[in-house]
Amino acid sequence: MTIADDIAVPPAPATTKSRAFPTQRVLLGLLSAFVVIFCVLPFILVLAISFGRKIEGAAWVWDFTLENYQRFFVGILWPDEITFLYLQQLGYSFYFAVIASLLAVLTALPFTLLLTRLKRASQAIWLVFILSSLSLSEVFIVMGWDILLSNNSGLPKVFKETGLTAWLKDVGWFQTLRDWGLANPRNVKFKTSDFATILTMSYLVWPYAVILLYPALSRLDPSLSEAARTMGAGRWTVTRTVTLPSIRLPLFGTSLLLFVFLLGSYVAITVFAAPNKHTTAVAIYANIRGSNLNAPFGSTQAIMLLISASVCLYLGHLFNNRAQAR
Amino acid sequence: MRAFGVIYMGLAALVLAMPIVVVCGAALNSGRSRFFPPVDPTLMRFGEFFISEPVWTNALWNSVIVAIGAATLAVLLAWPIAYLLWSTGSKLSKTLAGLGSLPFAVPPIVFGVGLGFFWAFNGGLGEVWAGVISHAILLMALPMVTISIGLQSIDRSHLDAAATMGATEQVAFRTVVLPQTVPYTISGFFFVLVLSFNEFIVIFFVSASSYATVTLQIFNSLRNGYTPTMAVAAITFLTVSIVVFSAVARWGDLPRLMGADQSRN
What residue ranges define each of the domains in chain B, with the CATH number in brackets? Predict the structure, then answer.
């Protein structure tokens, strides 16, 4: 880099170097070994066990069979009968994750934009609030929404007490809510429903959306939009033609990351989603720790989830590169 | 338009706060119920959570051990990797950093399943120390990022100056690099601490039901029936998070850590 750099490195006396060198080497080796063992080996184990075989009434054995994968795609009774139950579960994983991540990013975007325009000190206060809610466990958040959405407390009760339910019935919208599965004959209900699931999942990643969008938005050059404004562009036009195009990539990247994160969400789905809409993550748990006790098939599902996530990330990466090249 | 902005931010804050407020409020209930607003408010639950109910005090103790252990270990692992990455930029250091962030980047349930098998093979399944290592590995990516940000903020000319004045690499490290990265290291430590405290799915697989942290205990209670003590746990966690992040904001530069532009204030 500079001349000083060249001076800095070589003059280390040979004696200290030869003494220090092996320790550094050993430490580096240990560190690498540690990282490989703990960060990589677990994934390899999952992959290896996904080819294993379950023994009826016992645990499982190592093997190399593709039965589990076959079961994942066409069901256990194939070729006599074909079912897409497991693909459907993966489909629900995608369904919930896509909608929830998009909802989170679209609502977080205006918020973050407003946030970056505040004074530095107020930004820090908001960030503390957002980080606190971000770090709050999935379990607490689900518990909070569980209270808010369950029938005896929370919103349905509020609807009833305030006469909103009666009003909805008068107007005729109540029937629409019933069609959507958001009401029983007497009152609105949110458990179990797609609405509650998506709301909670979206809430879960909303702070992440803000944190991920924040760097890009805080680097937006205000002079650009100011210039556009001076030239007579309306606020909406500026947003559409200057701001949005310049944050297209972070916006896309954020949605993708949140989507991948949500693919594996477990607690919100078990509590809020209807049992026939349970996702692969729930099935993985049921196979590995829960009632089914079929570790190899659980691993297969985990691998399929991992592959889906990787494919999405890879496609996103390709898209990103192409967009940047342009 | 300005008013609209204020309203939007206020609304976002309201929705963000709503479930949290409800959980906290529910802690004051006296019966085994979860009404909001609380019926017959009492502070008894706090005593149960911190002192008298062994189920909760054990869980709290496990959570504290796992979080502090994991945060320490994660920082110790992340430091050399971030330092190598910054000082050499070698292929090995990039590989290590990439592999080190892998567990954090994939859906956590997959890593949880993998660790479950891993510990089952070497006897760590259901041991608290295995939980500590698992969380350290999972969250190592965070101090790696904060420490890297800190290292990048060091003016290389300071190092050149130190070298010109005859400081060896070790001395320069001790006198220039270390002091300037301390706030970032501490931030990384706290990020791991808080996230480990709140992590659920990995510890769920790794603990194998032989011990419970507070989040696990809450999940069990969520399924088996509600006790307001759960809500006390939530309040405790929230308080810890707010205190920790406020400290980071007070003594570190939170907007910068979150990637804000330096040149503007």
Answer: 62-257 (1.10.3720.10)
